[in-house]
Amino acid sequence: MADLERVLQALHDSEINAGVQTFFDAGMRIWIGDEVNGIQAETVFTRMGSTERTWPEGLTAASWLYETALRLYPYSKYAKEHGTEAPKKPAQD
What pLDDT is attached to residue 42? Predict the structure, then answer.
């Protein structure tokens, strides 16, 4: 599993803007892009369950950012350093 801080640092070093915002009792919003130049992709991870709320299994903010950056910026410094080809589109967008 990729470390979120490491992914965000690598995106930043490649001049790809991204962010994560949490909402108590609602989930987490993750995006690539920025409000000035436009959000290129975003998703929201919500906790599931009625009493014992859990995060979706196998899907993390770091993995979503990693896969989405490779798909959106296949010729970027990030893609050159972290993958040889863009993976399939993530399940949530």
Answer: 94
